[in-house]
Design a protein that fits this description.
Strands 6-11-4-1-2-3-14 form a 7-stranded mixed sheet, sandwiched between helices. The chain is α+β, with helices and mostly antiparallel strands and 319 residues long. It is globular. Helices cover 42% and strands 19% of the residues. The protein has 12 helices and 14 strands. The protein folds into 2 domains: 238 residues, Spore Coat Polysaccharide Biosynthesis Protein SpsA, Chain A (Alpha-Beta Complex), CATH 3.90.550; 53 residues, no CATH class.
Length: 319
């Protein structure tokens, strides 16, 4: 059984450089997993970076949003058993997250899993000893798909190419509407502890007036139609640079010679990385003293972090 781990990205090479290496290193040490970087658009800086480190890259002539970026991956590489699509600001903490999701999917016949999920009717439950959360809303930072079910419900709707955003929720709802799982979004509780989602600015901003309760009106309309299939389609031409997706010798040698954390970034950007790391530690420790020690360090390193401010507000509310 083969899995493809794809990092989707657009105009945020600085984020890619922060977090990409552990994913490639994981694939280097696990032959059942391949790695791909999928760029929405054609940015020469990405091409130069990937050529330097022999990173397999799929890129398009035009920017059309992350949904179309995923469609290109499925069109170019349709023969995997499992697909992971991960956004470029997601830091890998524990590589066992991949096998966790595969094992749960196989054992419980759940073809689609998310990073975390929420909604007024979300529930936490235990399935065969695994704590899961089911809900009606989720973001697309980390998505797992079993291939047969994925191709059964099809690709991301090309309607959203005009916005260069949206569409992932409608796509997930198709698994629910097709009767393939009992909630549109299901997440293992452990997944959120094995990944850390950072919060850089969106590449494409949409005015708040367009959003109705988490959804763009066009996406909400499609969800309400309860569609179960949309054909896998691409629009602009796309290209693959041809580098090996299973083992990256250049990165392996680089990591052998650069053992420090976040070796591809420097200065303020590296401080932000460590600020995020200490925020993750604060979120996951049960010791109150250490929680505030970690938060203090995180604040000193990256005081403008919106994730940090949000977490501190939550903690103060609980006191």
């Amino acid at each position: 059984m083969k899995s493809l781990i794809t990092i989707t990205t657009c105009n945020r090479l600085h984020e890619v450089k922060k977090y990409i290496l552990p994913y490639i290193d994981f694939c280097n040490h696990n032959e059942d997993f391949d790695f791909l970087l999928s760029l929405d658009g054609n940015n020469p800086e990405y091409l130069d970076f990937c050529n330097e480190f022999h990173i397999p890259l799929l890129y398009s002539d035009e920017r059309e949003g992350v949904g179309l970026s995923k469609n290109r991956v499925l069109t170019q590489f349709p023969d995997y058993d499992y697909y992971f699509f991960i956004e470029d600001d997601v830091e890998l903490i524990d590589g066992s997250v991949f096998q966790d999701n595969i094992d749960f999917s196989v054992e419980n016949n759940v073809p689609h899993l998310s990073h975390r999920t929420w909604g007024y009717d979300s529930i936490k439950t235990i399935t065969n000893g695994t704590i899961i959360i089911k809900g009606t809303k989720a973001a697309a930072q980390f998505c797992f798909f079993e291939a047969k079910a994925l191709f059964k419900i099809g690709g991301w709707n090309t309607l959203f190419a005009q916005y260069k955003r949206f569409g992932h929720s409608e796509h997930s709802y198709r698994f629910f509407h097709a009767g393939l799982q009992d909630y549109p979004f299901i997440a293992l509780e452990a997944t959120s502890k094995k990944l850390f989602v950072h919060d850089p600015p969106h590449v494409t901003n949409i005015e708040c007036d367009y959003i109705d309760n988490h959804y763009h009106p066009d996406e909400k309309a499609l969800i309400d139609q309860k569609t179960t299939y949309f054909p896998l389609q691409t629009l602009s031409k796309f290209h693959y640079n041809g580098f090996d997706m299973n083992y990256n010798k250049v990165v392996a040698e680089y990591l052998q010679n650069n053992r420090k954390k976040y070796p591809l970034v420097k200065g303020k950007e590296r401080c932000k990385c460590f600020g995020g790391m200490y925020l993750y530690k604060a979120q996951n420790t049960k010791m109150w003293f250490m929680k505030w020690v970690y938060l203090s360090i995180s604040f000193l390193l990256f005081s403008k972090s919106s994730s940090l401010r949000h977490f501190i507000k939550q903690e103060l509310h609980l006191i």
